[in-house]
Structures are given as C-alpha cells and as structure tokens.
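Usage

Read records sequentially. Each one opens with the input sequence:
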Amino acid sequence: MNSLRLWYRSEEVRMWLLCLPPGGGGAHQFRSWSDRLPPALGVAAVELPGHGTRSAEPPLTDLDALCARLAADVLPLLGRPVLLYGHSMGAVIAHDLAQHLRAERGWRPAALVAAAGDPPDRPLPAGLDTLSDEDLTGLLRAWGGATAELLDDPRYLAETLPLVRADLALVGGRTARDLPPLDCPVHVYLGARDATVDARLAAEGWAGRTTAGHTVRTFPGGHFFPQQSPDETLTALVEDADAAVGGRLLAAEGVAHG
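and closes with the structure output:
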C-alpha cells in the first residue's frame, strides 16, 4: 500500500509539505493543516506500515528498507519543490529519506524542518524498545503526546505500545554511517518546555547536517508543541517554505511579504 496521504485545497499546488510523524503517530495528525495553509502548499503525510490506516500491516524496523519504500512512493511529488517536515523520530526519517533520494536520484528538498528531534548522528539510548510496559508508558507521559486518561486506558496501551516499540527499534537500530551534509537549509523547531530534547545539542547537531545554513525557532509548549501552538507552528512553516522557493509560494497567493 502507498505510504502517502494527500490533502490539498487547490489543483494549483506549487509546493508540497511532506510530513513524517513522530513515534507511534499516524498521518491523520496532519490532516487539519491543509485547511490552515495557503492553497498553493499541499500536505503529503506518510502513513508508516502498522500505523493508522495501515494497521493490518507489520511495522518496519529497518530504516534503510523504509526509506527505499518511501522514495518510491514520493516520486510523484518530486516535480514540485518539497519541504520535508519530520517530528521527533520523523526528523531522522526525513533526513535519511533526503539522503537516499540524493544518492539515488540527485534530488534535494527545498528545505528540511527538524521538529523536536535529535540529530541523526546522536543515537537513541540503547534498549528503549525493550523497556517494560510500565517504563515505556512513563516515557510516553514524559513526551506528553497523549492525555493521562488515554495512558491509563489498557486498550489504548495495548494498541500503542507495540507501535512505539517498533518505531524506537526503527530509529534505534539505524546504522551509523559517514554521510555528507545535506545541501538544503535545515530549520530546527523546538518546544520551550520540551524536557526530552537538549536544545543546544539539537541545534548544534542539525547545524552540522547541512551546508546551506540553518535556523532555530522555539515555540510555546512541550515535545508536541504543534498541538499547543498550532498558529505559531504553521506560520513558521509557511515562512520557511516561502523562503525556500524565493518568495514564489506566497506570490502565487497574492500575499504581500517582504
């Protein structure tokens, strides 16, 4: 099954925002973004095997294999500029997907946004995917993506914990390699109250993954700040998307900008 879920309000999409979800997450969380973004910016979100509408499929735990599949699925998007957005674990997947497409097709994204995510050369602590159910639930509480009510629901945990384990194994098992930096801008988005990401190390680490400059923005909220500060997050995405294509995105909308 194809990995992409597309949402757009106009047939005149000039640029794609390709979204990679956080661990345990699905494409649906990006559905509402298309209603709040300029029509010229379409939303394409990745639904990983085992997640959301692909729950009947076994999850993947091999990042190279995943990137090869995603590279085939995103080919129809590559005729237009693409802004890669990866949240938490999704930031590492976005980076490795960009590396795969550069190696295989000489392609580069317009820019990459790494939100609430450690850089790919900073490995996850060993053994996260083998934590007990109790300890893994505690990690989810620290991340703050689910309510306390959900995390006290045995049915929710029975569905969610196996996916989170698989996703932690996916990124935690990433093969270390000496890859050249990307040749696109990298924008680091951080939550002001995110205790799970070291802001300084994230900013420095991602700066080293590009030769085309980087920026750092901090938003009100924790690890899942887009839920807590959606207006600020989407405004920043539009600004960075527009800058990546030299102001042509908002010009297509007839929006004055400077």
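Summary fields computed downstream for this record:
- The mean pLDDT is 92.
- The CA atoms of residues 2 and 73 lie 6 Å apart.
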